[in-house]
Specification:
Rossmann fold; 25% strand; 575 residues; 9-stranded mixed β-sheet; single chain; 14 helices; GMP Synthetase, Chain A, domain 3; 25% helix; 3 domains
Length: 575
């Protein structure tokens, strides 16, 4: 497809199906809310089934509503919602109106959210009363509109032309007279279900995502409409999508993995997405999979670990429940972090299903995958997707030889690669310049490359092996050591639940391998020294001497990002 042709995510994912006799009444989303004595307003209770025809009307209403509120083309809208239908409707309604949605985690602290509001210069915030911080009213910024998702007729703060009107405790400020608060449902009901979607170039910005900020402040990553088309290859060789599939991605919709592979890609192919909001314990997962005939299960290593090991459930009972729950599942996928071979093997023995891994990043969503039609190579994160030009480069930007560690790089021709970071593109519409700071040039070939910051190597057969973040790789005793390799060995021990390995600098020029371990609940906590010795002996049997941890600490839990990735920098930051 010519990249210069017009293309719009919302038209492709929703309207083309809604206007088809074959798909218009097909269920696009099954939403299951978490029953609770005091449910979140956005989540509600029970089950909602939304067809493609429903989605077309709902997203058209939001697009019209944004226009009626005076939100202009290219302005940014921040979504601070849990998994719920309102998230998807707001996201695609904004896209239809030419407004740029920015999904964020509702678990962000106020300083984290404040940074994103100011950095993006967002004019609209969509959230719930539960996740609306009072501080949003207290500082001057570009924000003009707050839409509150609420089942109440008059949410608090009540709709008002200026902040604080009708809200005891909130004092109006002359500097914020333009900030208005409206109920999302009222905007939906008052707007027309007919809308003429913007005719967008394929390479125009469609949505922003913020990186996890593990290397400092989060960066705004801008993706184009055409990036979704690049996912067709992974739908074929990784997800193995088939007509009638029901796909359940357990992750939060603000994360690229769930937003694209669990929602937008599903709808592009006219399939059904199961969206759940609630606690993901093993029994609930199996219940959902069985009840809604899930064919594709997409999750993260931590969830798979729960499915094969739960201290509160006898092993045989757990295996029986999981085996029965996954009886009709065809495909199981994992992303986010490396899946341990122990969990993979336990799950395979229990269900008969392989777990196929994918590697991606906010800037380039899942682009290395273990193909479902090829045997899994132990330790490998797979091969590049078809038509995705991915390489491993040396420091001089020449291509590394097989088994030589280098930096993972994506060529700018990759359609799924981001347009760029906010600071690299031209406001107000943030279009990519002909030459920008995002890419580096390799020799005289004229090829432009985005360097990921991840270290990896490939074998003779083209399988890629992830070593770790460039900053995470440990240099100790003159050796370069992958923390993932050491963690994988420690995690194989029956004493260990999970671990994180870093290099700790004792003094300039002297770094040692240090491990932080969360023990299996069945491991005796009062035998710390004996347990340490057992783990060191286990490491000695499976690792070269220079890779064995010199220090070992026990923790109740590991610090992680919102997406479940280990924050190794926490262990290496100096006071």
């Amino acid at each position: 497809m010519n990249k210069n042709l017009s293309y719009n995510i919302a038209l492709d994912c929703i309207d083309k199906h809604a206007q088809s006799l074959h798909n218009k009444h097909k269920v696009a989303m099954i939403y299951v809310g978490s029953p609770s004595p005091q449910p979140s307003p956005a989540r509600g209770e029970g089950v909602q089934k939304i067809t493609y025809s429903n989605l077309e009307g709902l997203t058209n209403r939001i697009a019209n509503g944004l226009r009626e509120l005076g939100v202009q083309l290219g302005e940014r809208l921040i979504l601070r919602l849990p998994n719920c239908p309102e998230f998807a409707v707001s996201f695609l309604g904004a896209v239809k109106a030419g407004v740029i949605p920015i999904p964020t985690s509702p678990l962000l602290t106020w300083p984290e959210l404040e940074f994103m509001l100011e950095d993006s210069e967002a004019s609209v915030l969509v959230t719930t009363e539960e996740f609306l911080p009072k501080e949003v009213f207290e500082k001057r910024r570009v924000l003009k509109q707050i839409l509150i998702v609420s089942q109440k007729k008059s949410p608090s703060p009540s709709p008002s032309p200026a902040r604080g009107e009708g809200n005891p405790g909130l004092v109006p400020s002359p500097s914020r007279e333009r900030l208005t608060v409206n109920r999302w449902q009222d905007l939906l009901k008052s707007s027309s279900p007919v809308f003429q979607t913007e005719n967008t170039p394929a390479d125009a910005p469609a949505y922003w995502l913020y990186t996890s900020g593990t290397e400092g402040k989060p960066k705004a990553v801008i993706h184009s409409h055409q990036s979704i088309r690049a996912h067709d290859a992974r739908a074929k060789v990784w997800q193995d999508v088939k007509s009638g599939d029901v796909i359940f991605n357990t992750s939060a919709l603000n994360w690229s993995y769930a937003l694209t592979a669990g929602l937008l890609d599903v709808w592009r192919h006219g399939l059904t997405s199961l969206v759940y909001s609630g606690d993901l314990h093993s029994e609930k997962i199996c219940e959902l999979i069985q009840k809604y005939s899930v064919t594709t299960f997409m999750s993260v290593p931590g969830i798979y670990r729960r499915l094969v090991s739960n201290p509160s459930i006898p092993t045989l009972d757990l295996k029986g429940r999981v085996r029965e729950g996954f009886r009709h599942v065809r495909v199981c996928l994992s992303a986010g972090e490396k899946l341990s071979e122990e969990v993979r093997n336990h799950f395979l023995k229990t269900t008969g299903l392989e777990i196929y891994e994918g590697l991606g990043m906010t800037e380039h969503s899942v682009y290395l995958v273990q193909r479902y039609d090829e045997p899994i190579v132990p330790g490998s994160c797979g091969k590049p997707l078809p038509d995705q030009r991915v390489a491993i480069l040396r420091e001089d930007l020449t291509e590394a030889s097989p088994d030589e560690i280098g930096v993972l790089a994506s060529h700018r021709s990759c359609e799924g690669l981001m347009l760029g970071y906010k600071e690299d593109l031209s406001p107000p519409l943030f279009l990519r310049q002909t030459q920008d700071r995002l890419f580096v040039r390799r020799g005289n070939e004229g090829g432009d490359w985005f360097l990921s910051g991840d270290l990896a190597y490939r074998d003779e057969d083209g399988n890629f092996f992830f070593v770790g973040r460039r900053d995470d790789v440990i240099t100790a005793g003159g050796y370069r050591i992958s923390p993932l390799e050491v963690e994988a060995v420690l995690n194989q021990s029956e004493l260990v639940c999970e671990s994180a390995v870093v290099g700790r600098e004792l003094e300039p020029g002297k770094t040692i391998v240090t491990a932080f371990v969360v023990l299996n609940p069945k491991t005796a906590a009062d035998e710390a020294e004996a347990t340490k010795q057992k783990l060191i002996l286990h490491a000695e049997k499976n690792l070269a001497k220079y890779k064995i941890p010199r220090e070992l600490f026990f923790l109740n839990e590991l610090p992680k990002t919102r997406n479940g990735k280990i924050k190794r920098r926490t262990f290496t930051q100096k006071d």
